[in-house]
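Our consortium's second objective concerns turning raw sequence data into structural hypotheses that experimental partners can test. To show how far this objective has progressed, the report includes one record in full. It was chosen at random from the queue rather than selected for favorable results. The single chain below, 379 residues long, was entered without modification.
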Amino acid sequence: MTRLILIGFITSALFGTATGCGPSAKDPQPFGIPSAYKVGKKPATLVAHDMNNDDFPDLLVPNTDDHTLMFFEGNGDGTFKEPFVMNTGREPVALAVADFNGDRIADAAICNYGDGNFSVILGQKDGVFKMLDPVKTGKLPIAVTTGDFNNDRKADLAVTLRFDKLIIFLGNGDGTFKPAEAYHAPGTPARLVSGDYNGDNNQDLAITFNAMKMNFIRIYFGNGDGTFQVPKKVFGGKQASFITQSDMNGDNHLDLIISSATADSLTIFLGDGKGGFKRQQDFAAEKGPGYIVPGEFTGDKVPDLIVGNVRDGDISLLQGRGDGSFIFPHFNYPVGRQPRSIAGADFNKDGLKDLAVLLYDSATLQIFMRKIDNPRIES
């Protein structure tokens, strides 16, 4: 496999100008010319994490048509080694990373959509991986996240099933899990995140739903013993396909950000740290917004958003004002057809967040390195 470098008029066209911006706005051009790596057939998602304790972010890519997981080891300079390929179950669609066996080496839990289970792959000291026996989840596991849901300092898992269920797996601390606890989650649950949203030091869950006419997310508040309360609906958005979290207004409380590919919109819910969320007005995105990466991308130390737009074949930069709102117009940068997933990490240890973008149609992984000098955009 050969690393591909995008050069010539294509990249100058991609990152010399941006679309969707007014004549008075100055394009920050935060990224340099991308490099690219081939992945497997129908890549599903992308996770950036240091898997071998060398302080350099690595990349994990599951490929649904190949039934494989690719591990790209980072060199620490923005480049990656030839991928190590592992077989998974049928149709791996989602993964979460944590230390599941307490050896201080990152492991991965992979949802196998076609098999109705998840597999745990344990990281080893010599840099290789060991796959454990799969664990049944029920039909069509679509998303997974990790957290310590019973406060025993062992990583647990939460898995959503397409058929209206949330399944909790409490970790034993050796890479195995206790029998699952199931919760009703009607409305076709999609992505989920975990965090402490009400300040009780227990991990909670926030889940998006993308059945027709769904216009809310649900918050499952944790009791701290591995169980969860009856969920609270927070209205906003429409058929949300993705959710992430960050502190977007500097109050030290987690906020939730969702995207709706059907409505071509984004929604932010500002958390108050007590379990309440204030929905900001939905705002327009490009066509088919999906994955969202919060981070500081313009040099002003204020959190921004990068959004992958599946139907447009581009990524958008939305510059934050620091209060949960954004400067418009935003900037759009073509990347290629169907940017399925994006992840942010500092791939070359320069203190700036870079981007990895997964293109579904071309089975390509693109790496966009941040430029050091990025002026602030003035509204």
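The partners drew two points from this record. The longest strand covers residues 326-334. The chain has a mean pLDDT of 90. Both points have been shared with the crystallography group to help prioritize constructs.
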